[in-house]
Amino acid sequence: MTYEPKSLKVVGTRPVRHDGPDKVTGRANYASDFTLPGMLWGSILRSPHAHAKVISINTDKARAHPGVKAVITGADLPLPPPGVTQAGESAINTQHLAKNLLARDKVFYDGHPVAAVAAISEAIAREALGLIEIEYEVLPHVIDVDEAMKADAPLLHDDLFTEGVEPRPETPSNIAKRIVVSKGDIEKGFAEADIVIERTYTTKAVHQGYIEPQGCVANYAEDGQAMVWCSSQGQFVIRDLCITMLGMEASSLKVIPAEIGGGFGGKTTVYLEPLALMLSKASGRPVKMTMSRGEVLRATGPHSGSSMTARIGAMKDGTITSAEVVIKFQAGAFPGSPVGAAVMFCSAPYDIPNLSITGYDVVVNIAKVHAYRAPGAPNGAFAFETVLDELAHELKMDPIDFRAKNSAVEGSKSPYGPTYGPLGGIECLSSAKNHPHYKVNLGPNQGRGVASGFWINIGGQSAATVVVNRDGTISLVEGCPDIGGSRASLAMMCAEVLGIAAEKVRPSIVDTTAIAFNDVTGGSRVTFATGIAVVQATEDAVRQMRERAAKMWDIDVDQVGWRDGAAQEMNGNRSLTISQIAQKAAKTGGQIMGHASINASGAGPSLTTHLCDLEVDRETGKITILRYTAFQDAGKAVHPSYVEGQMQGGVVQGIGWALNEEYIHDENGRLENAGFLDYRMPVASDLPMIDAVIIEVPNPNHPFGVRGVGEAPIVPPLAAIANAIYDATGVRMRDLPFSPPKVLAALEAAEKAKANG
Last residue of some domain: 600, 618, 644? Predict the structure, then answer.
């Protein structure tokens, strides 16, 4: 059923979020808040080397240390059968995951886990780690993606042969996979172009930067039943990965979701949970494990650094005729970077007749990369959108008009295959062009940049239960951790269908035994997919209440309607409220509960355009963001405040990525900035107020027209800032991040070149 926008009373409003009071008063429980009687503390010994053979491990002294109750190494964790599990945007190879949890014969990055202990205190656990004796044979390492692709590069895996190449290579390499998306004839397209620009770009690995480090408590009982409390983006995926790693049955493991202090894609896999379960089983006691910030940065999936070359051609009237892009991504220690998304989506906002985009997934000696908010898309957009800006300047076209001329619209064929349905790209560009921000004059050393972005969004499996209480309130049960306000959005959709206030619906996120399977909170899927499940479950509850009312009135159910939270007799004046129906439920058939379990499709992509004004200090190279406005198609903003928050949050992370954030390794491959003092993320004083303009082009595949909104906002900032720097200085920056030393060096080089003629 589709709900008409004019009839909506709850969806589109701004009620207080249901979990807000607990979080602002400190009552919310996060993973590190859990304790159990008799609990032990677990700690991990990590490799100090970027690449080395493990010759031997001796744990005898650690096992004998007073207070130590269990010690495990890679020998205690058998490899699972080969397989791949989907976790949000990421496909996880289970054998690689096992090798990442605990190293076997080799360590592949600084911070790679080698052993773990459980002891009666944190201090004793750390002491025991120092007693484990490991003999390493240090090997050459490689971190730069271009260097890793060379034939003479240090080889990480001698059994890795490049997929996607015919014939299959006979020699192993660090190139795990080659991906190609193409259409038309690119050489014909370039021949038709009046101008062709080709540029090369690089980005560094960056971290998701969630506030809360990973943490969990595991309790493995003697009867084989186990429980895990953890911070994650999906308790069902955590359960499935743990049982795969440990050879358990699904019914023997309950995973209970704690509140989550951010994830951004980085908490859709396991780092601690299987180890805590193993230590609990070995010791017969509950085990708690948490990461320090240094461990998070050294050993949990950063987002890929990349090297990219983009060549785009256009005619004098601004029509893009052809585009060729080559994208190389760091995968980390094991294959599986998000290069596929970069390949599919870098040109997705546009309708280009001739296209060839090639991606390479390359293993290097850093932690296995993992999803980070629109994984892969910001890198690809950085290259594509900055070349577009150069073309617009060369053609003397307004950069927004240039994009609009080539914009994909409903009926355009996407680069990755499907034909687009309704899209909001043109609407975002038009809104940006007509916004006051675009008309304000800038001063000396100030510039304005434009960039657009795309994210596909996903659907997936979701389930929901709606329980009708005797007092007329509603208990909404669902299984997707709330990161960005989904409790509120789901409760609002439930309330809209029922015709009651959102405050009358109390949402609960439950464990893996209390509801059917739910995919992770990732891919911008929850308000879309779980929203559909909630709507269907609520409609099921409404159907049951209409049936109960018909039974109480002794009329046919077709004669009973529903309006404003009550059953209405269609050919009379009688009505029954939710409470009146629920109070009679025991006599009319029992508890009223609506259910839905779905695998949603038709998510509908989200497009966005950003405007960035900045100022460059020519003496120091420091960049100050003066004004930023994001325009994004949300389909329908269920709770506009949280949509705006998602847009603003994505921009903030993109600004950090563009200006400051990067992994810095020393000559031995060790991470030098494994803390927030040196890994520089933006704080409030670094930022202006970020304006968010919501565009609403309804997605026909959702009852309220919803599109996911959480990921598209991080896609344009890298390019928007690069384009603004050029507008301010006349200098093109192509290597992220644009830190003050880099900017100053580029300005000085430009001045020197100008002086030399």
Answer: 600
